């Protein structure tokens, strides 16, 4: 058996603990797969004295990052500490020291991934980041290896567990957003400050990473149009369910003839769509390739062990590459620059819920406005509102472009017969 | 740009045609991914004169296998002709000529995979077979790379599109097996001789390949216990649906402490199980890893382009390895010998449907027999049978071992109060 490969950890929270646990518990399988022992050599922690649930030789702990990233015993640095600018500096230093990198840091990769990958390549080092997107689901390897020969034209991801948990509970139990969010916080499925999750920022980072890899095209975080779920009402879920749809927070990345659209927004999907059955905190990424057609990768989107498993699969890849002597030798070509579609090119169906004046002529006023903007109806539901001279109208449109849709929505608000536009969502997976 | 890599095809049916189409249509992306042109150099066909829908330079066609497997222009042989013994000889000759192999042949790999892989390794050649299991789903790469660091303990696969199509139609439309099979044959979803599909043999081959890879343990085709769907009745589907289950033909591979069970059989899954939403001709493989937990890979299980895409992803891998100079350098250790569980160790729930004499005491006779074999009830449904002094009893048992279950079933048949045991199925994914 060859000499052990040395692993240094930056961070020792839940994912770091999971990595240490897997390296220990699965040592035999690991050796079987890579042909040599794998040993944790150094672990950066904030406070060496802190009580820990994971048993670890305390001589391995250090409060000095340099003892990890500059140690001659460390071949591979696993970054599971989070953070952006300071962490980036540490990884640059580690790469300059010829350490291979495995990171679970989506924030860092969404912002500085291209730069770090270039440096890694220059230094002959691997830099893998499977754990940064969709936890335990091997989606990045699926895109870069499994579907490598295909031309991917569309990805739809449920890539945030917190929001999927909230929408599932709202939808199955008919409860309000605030009520479910509070319960999710008590159960640990949502952070005490849930903004990054519920407003879609976390999902946007993951979609930027997915789109960059899937389309071989540099997609920036700022390219992602983002809308969260904090304004989704139980009524929206109720009516969409009646009309045959399930609401999910969907990260959507599409390309047509080299032009890209990318967004994160609450989206209605037909009940029979594979993503509609992805419940609770689970994640899934639906990938459409020109040749393969529909595929979907499903699994746990977060959690110490699933995320650690993804990081470990990267570790295995790095060690295999070390033993083959091919680290950092990417044979994939450079990324193209991505060109975003304009609103005229973004086609979709929409769900629109209006409260309208309940009198003769209302409907004809509304339908002529829709006709004016060339937006036609696929489904329609009208219901009286109890105790008011008002009616609720829910429309599922046929496909239209986003420019027309936005003009329509602006004008709808101003119609005298419309009390209010209650809500509006994109509809995908139909037609 | 470096010199082109030469590809030789053995076979030019639907998958072979798909390969040629993808190499042509996606040439630019391919070059981007592997850094050199990829060219089809020779194609073995039965009859050069036959009319073909795919346009191909007829100088590339040959009726002599040797012109493919011994051509100095061919670096990689893609085997998409099917067949077992003759095909094996051709591949052995190709490997002896130092050609890398990509094959879509599940029959061959289920029977002779270990031998061929060993020869490939000895010759410094790659031999990849992603397309042999579940068409366009990159499940083999998912197991060998994505989940490489985890210990996989359970796999459940819907790996045969024909049977999934038939069960979906029977279940959704309340039609009989014979009726749906006939329609499936007319639509081309089932072969004119559907035996290998409907009796579970096709699925068994794929499960042997999956289990060998997922458990790093040599699982033989003969190890797979196989039952098909030809005796599934619409009544079985109706009652299982009423009790909250969906019936699927499930390939199940489990290991506990190094002992393995592997089977293909009609199985009931709770409606909310991810595999329950896999409809029509789609395939999916559900993988449980100790660390990652539940994951699922979903996609088209057959079809020219999906299967060709899987073969193409292998081709990309071979070419990347060629450019890195690492073909055939597997760093994975040898397979362990698999030890099968005996019936006492195989634990499961069961669905049992009986027709019984409708008189006082029947139920108590049956329940005391169940108690004798330590099989307890989770759910129970009793219904009168129209116009007969009989009742239908449907039981979902708690978990029991297969030995007890079989003793129970043998004795049930002999009870005077039991007219007949109508059907019985394994139940998975609960408890």
- What gross morphology of chain A would you assign? elongated
What is the averaged pLDDT score of chain A? Answer: 92
The main pleated sheet of chain A reads as:
12 strands, mixed
Q: Which CATH top level class of the largest domain in chain A fits? A: Alpha Beta
For the record, the count of structural domains of chain A works out to 3
> Quick one: which chains have the greatest interface?
A-B, 64 and 64 residues
Terminal CA distance of chain A reads: 58 Å
Name the CATH superfamily classification of the largest domain in chain A: Dihydrodipicolinate Reductase, domain 2
Separate helix tally of chain A: 14
Protein name (chains A, B): Homoserine dehydrogenase
Keywords (chains A, B): Amino-acid biosynthesis, Metal-binding, Methionine biosynthesis, NAD, NADP, Oxidoreductase, Sodium, Threonine biosynthesis
Pathway (chains A, B): Amino-acid biosynthesis; L-threonine biosynthesis; L-threonine from L-aspartate: step 3/5; Amino-acid biosynthesis; L-methionine biosynthesis via de novo pathway; L-homoserine from L-aspartate: step 3/3
GO molecular function (chains A, B): homoserine dehydrogenase activity; metal ion binding; NADP binding
